[in-house]
Amino acid sequence: MKLAKVVLATVAMSLAMPAAAQMRALSDPVVPHPDPESLFTSPDPLLNRNKQAALHIQRNLLKCNEWSRASEWLTDAYIQHNPVAASGLEGVVHYFTQIARREPLDPCPALSADDPNGVVAVMAEGDYVTVLTRRIVPYADNPEESYTTTWFDTWRFVDGRADEHWDPMTLPVGPPPQAAAPQMTPEQLVQRYADREAIEARMWAYDRSLDHLDADAYVANFTQDGAFGRVQGHEALRGMINGLLESQQQRRSEGVTMGRMHHFTMNQWLEFTGPDTARYHYYHQTVFGTGGMAGSPDAPFIAAAGQGVDDLVKINGEWLIRYRNVAPSREEE
């Protein structure tokens, strides 16, 4: 649940604010306490009981996945204020055992400063315990790099069991195809986001290689048997691009004014059709022009426009175009 929350929050923030994808953290790193379990004690008997119950939630449930014991530390009501989690003991146990498929650790190790969600501080007052933990968040533009921030969980305890829970989770935002994301495992969420980034980079590289009529860069976007319409295979695709280049050079040598070529891809919808397959829906335009005003000889003009549906596949960890279709039939749309 902890890792799932931070991944979902990261996805939500990056989709809502794409400009932030290039930013890097300015803060000092979050450092967990060297002896986290020592924070879960108090000389006050009531606070000590609640802190110890919070320790069991943090260690036995969230770290060691001993969800068969959840009723020892959570009430049947277990009121949730996390917007992606339903209230009730039965629901939280079902999520971790049937959806997230978390397997118990045996033996169950103590909390450690090396835990990804290492405990930073524990505060208790009355019936409430708040636990601050480290969160390791991948950067949107490079999931292999990350920064740290702080998460909190607050529980209200009744007779030594958590009856109510708060945290800073928000609902994920993004296109409808991602609506099922909250039911993915944390690892699947991270992979899905990385796949989305890789496909967007691939389609950007495709347009740039086509604008420059760089045959080698163009064919590198396709699988070995990849196709643009009826043109299939790397050699045929390379010949198509070289033919376009020769045609443009010939026309310019004959005095035809031709501005630079630009391909625009708009209103994209990325549909994942499997763990290693995806379909990219979009509208497209091909524009020639050097930026002149309307009516001037070098004014931009639209040479082509339409709708496209491309099929992509991940091979050896790399997303490639298998079939680019810029004139789909009604059934293919």
Write a compact overview of the structure shown.
With 333 residues, the chain is α+β, with helices and mostly antiparallel strands.
Output the keywords.
333 residues; Nuclear Transport Factor 2, Chain: A; 2 domains; five-stranded mixed β-sheet; 6 helices; 28% helix; elongated; disordered N terminus
Protein topology:
Elements: H1 2-16, H2 45-61, E1 74-80, H3 89-99, E2 119-125, E3 128-139, E4 142-158, E5 161-166, H4 186-211, H5 215-219, E6 222-228, E7 231-232, H6 234-253, E8 261-274, E9 277-288, E10 301-315, E11 318-325
Parallel strand pairs: 1-5, 6-11
Antiparallel strand pairs: 2-3, 3-4, 4-5, 6-7, 8-9, 9-10, 10-11
Helix pairs in contact: 1-4
Based on the structure given, which CATH architecture of the largest domain is correct?
A: Roll
Number of helices: 6
Number of strands: 11
Low-confidence stretches: 1-21, 177-182
- Proportion of residues in β-strands: 25-35%
What name does CATH use for the topology of the largest domain? Answer: Nuclear Transport Factor 2, Chain: A
What fraction, in percent, of the residue positions are helical? 25-40%
Major sheet: 6 strands, mixed
By secondary-structure content and strand pairing, the structural class works out as alpha+beta
User: Could you say how many structural domains there are in total?
Assistant: 2
* CA gyration radius, whole angstroms: 27 Å
Instruction: Please give the order of strands in the largest beta sheet.
Output: 7-6-11-10-9-8
Give the SSE string: HHEHEEEEHHEEHEEEE
CATH class of the largest domain: Alpha Beta
Principal-axes geometry comes out as elongated
Write down the overall mean pLDDT: 85
Distance between the termini: 37 Å
